[in-house]
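Progress report, Aim 2. The chain analyzed during this reporting quarter is listed below.
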Amino acid sequence: RRLPAVETLGAVTVICSDKTGTLTKNQMTWTQIWSGQDKKINDPDGAGKFNVDEFIGNEKTKQYLAQAVSCNTLGTHEDAQATELAMLKFIQRCDIDYQFLRQKYLPKDLLRFPFDSSRKRMSTILELEDTDATEHGYNKRIHIKGASEIVLGTCSHYLDWEGNKQPLDDQMNQLLATTIQGYAKQALRTIAFAYKDLQENEGGPLHEDKEENSKIYKIEEGGHTLICIAGIKDIIREEVPGAVKSCNEAGVR
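Predicted structure tokens for the chain:
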């Protein structure tokens, strides 16, 4: 920040730098997904439609993920933040109209619990037209997304590759933890998506009860079903690899 200070250093062995927007373009792209199986997304930076069957194996998971991304995000292609924009671009390339689904599932008296750094999650309650599509014959479903380890900790089940709801046992928990670690080693931001069909009066008559001094709402605490885990990449600036190489050759880490 203060270039004149360089003259007094004498020698430099370590450079510390901000990453987002400095080493990277702050242009997030969804490049990998676990939805019962771990899959790389072909041509993640392209503009054409995806062959969704290559990385989502069934219609049920597609439906839940379409709801999750469309209705539990903020903004549009014009004004969404980088991570949310990566999700919206992904769902659009899956040939899903997120604006239509927002109009279909989000009521006028929308109940949404926003993301912040302490919560590390965002939740939105959808109002379904067909109560037969829910597990309890009630027309409310909560979708939650956020830091993978946080969301995974609220899940009791997951959707397998065929879209069947399965108990989340210790073996699967370990597999998912390994998947998340693998994404992190590739410098991917990992985000988990999950849902829960609510029961009437669950978490209070309006579903917004929480313990005193807590930022977590009761309906967010557990009983969710994992839909998928996303690996999202922030694109490196073109000049960065050459700059890092030059630093290494000069003895700077």
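The mean pLDDT is 91. The chain is about 25% helix and 25% strand. These observations will guide the mutagenesis work planned for the next reporting period.
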